[in-house]
Design goal:
Order of helices and strands: HHHHHHHEEHHH
Distance between the termini: 49 Å
Strand order of the largest sheet: 1-2
Number of helices: 10
Length: 257
């Protein structure tokens, strides 16, 4: 299990959730009806808002496609997280929030336009789109990396999402989830190349002000609970207990005693 503990924290957590929910659903002990996404339930008088997040926790029951997507998550999600968020896990969690919000916004637009066209992007579960988002972001991070498929097909990293989309189509998978992942990935690329570059580097240097940053409460939460790595200088610590550290919390002794 060394490979499992060596995974970056976000990838490891997502993999654990998908393994647990997939095996629990296969065993018949997971009530999926309470996790699935349905705008009619989320818009009712007492809205079931937890579904906006829980629909990302179920990738499917164990199958060939399920296993392949878990491999994609480990290989490409883990590599991307290690490259982008090795020193700040909170930024990676923020990236996940942006992806989830983008996915649900696209789903809502598809749902609201259902009276005009078939709502092709409406799904009860969006975990596949989240996995494919990692693949797409990895391809943007390593566009010229050489990738081997099945040991005999070689292609550049930038072509990998479309190769996987074709593979999903051949295996009878849900290509609309892949397309959703690509759209989510495009939004992520915009956020990180524009907001996280221009608004966190160029604009602060020119004006001395910061407009976009990972929320302090999220940085503090990661520090307090030991979630991955967060640079302490990024948090305005009130006291040492903010990082779970109590170096001077015992009884004092006078020097010489």
């Amino acid at each position: 299990m060394d490979w499992y503990h060596a995974l970056p924290p976000i990838t490891r957590a997502v993999l654990t959730v998908y393994l647990a929910t997939g095996l629990a659903a296969w065993a018949g002990v997971l009530p999926l009806k309470y996790l699935s996404h349905d705008w009619r339930l989320e818009f009712k008088r007492v809205p079931e808002l937890w579904r906006l997040l829980t629909n990302f926790t179920f990738l499917g029951r164990p199958s060939i496609i399920w296993l392949i997507q878990l491999i994609w998550l480990v290989l490409y999600g883990g590599s991307y997280e290690q490259a982008k968020f090795a020193d700040n896990t909170a930024d990676g969690i923020m990236m996940m929030f942006v992806g989830v919000a983008t996915c649900m916004a696209l789903d809502l637009l598809s749902f609201l336009s259902g009276w005009l066209v078939t709502p092709i992007l409406v799904r009860h579960f969006h975990a596949s789109a989240l996995v494919f988002q990692f693949v797409y972001l990895w391809s943007k991070q390593y566009p010229e990396a050489q990738v081997s498929l099945f040991g005999f097909i070689r292609l550049n990293g930038k072509h990998l999402p479309f190769a996987f989309l074709t593979l999903d189509l051949l295996l009878g998978g849900d290509i609309w989830s892949d397309i959703m992942g690509i759209l989510m990935g495009h939004m992520q690329v915009f956020v990180f190349l524009f907001a996280y570059w221009f608004l966190t580097e160029v604009y602060p240097m020119a004006s001395g002000r910061h407009l976009v940053r990972t929320p302090t409460w999220l940085l503090r939460l990661c520090l307090q609970h030991g979630i991955g790595r967060v640079p302490i200088q990024a948090v305005n610590l009130v006291n040492p207990s903010d990082v779970g550290f109590r170096a001077f919390s015992g009884r004092g002794r006078r020097l010489g005693n």
